[in-house]
Design goal:
Distance between the termini: 16 Å
CATH architecture: 3-Layer(aba) Sandwich
Structural class: alpha/beta
Shape: globular
Largest sheet: 7 strands, mixed
Number of strands: 7
Length: about 200
């Protein structure tokens, strides 16, 4: 997929304020400071489409970007440092939870995982929650340029064996680097194929 246009359209504080759109939507979410903004800029080939910051949790609203006039990229607020639980989903982000559970044209949620870290409890709990929503999701392991290929492979295998094995669904897995552009083509091809299947 070649990105010909990437245009910011709207920011929304909650699901109720999101305008209806006929375009399939692909959302991105992850723990704070996982590299989400850098990944979005990598995919769109725009240096400033999403604001990159060293301050965790900078994304407070749901930000929508129209790509190629064919699909929408949704930048969801990160799930911070709080715990996700079935009893109180608002602990990570009520707006994002509503969006993920109820947005009709949501085609896939990409959950970003820092490839350098051992499985984090907040990621484990979030994946347990989203797996129960029946929402299609995939994993993207970020920041792979900060370690060796072997270390990234080991990290993904460890995560798969210790975390994903416990889920009823097995998501697609990607790895990426905003610095080397690794993974960009694979992720965009997945999005393109998902759109064709709609």
């Amino acid at each position: 997929m070649k990105i010909k246009s990437a245009v910011f359209t709207i920011s929304c504080p909650n699901l109720q304020s999101c305008k209806w759109s006929p375009l399939p939507e692909f959302a991105f979410i992850g723990r704070s400071n996982v590299g989400k903004s850098s990944l979005i800029n990598l995919l769109s080939e725009r240096n400033d489409l999403a604001k990159v910051s060293n301050v965790p949790g900078k994304t407070k609203l749901m930000n929508f970007f129209t790509i190629n006039n064919a699909w929408t990229l949704v930048d969801l607020p990160g799930y911070g440092y709080a715990h996700v639980s079935k009893e109180n989903r608002a602990d990570f982000n009520e707006a994002a939870a509503d969006f993920i559970e109820n947005r009709e044209n949501l085609a896939c949620v990409f959950v970003l995982i820092d490839s350098r870290l051992p499985p984090q409890e907040i990621d484990i709990e979030f994946l347990g929650w989203i797996a129960e929503t029946d929402t299609p999701f995939a994993l993207i392991f970020t920041k792979t340029d900060k370690q060796s290929i072997a270390q990234t492979k080991t990290a993904i295998e460890r995560f798969s064996n210790n975390v994903l094995a416990e889920l009823d669904v097995q998501p697609e897995i990607f790895s990426s680097s905003s610095k080397t552009k690794f993974g960009r083509t694979q992720i965009l091809n997945f999005i393109e194929q998902t759109i064709k299947q709609k």
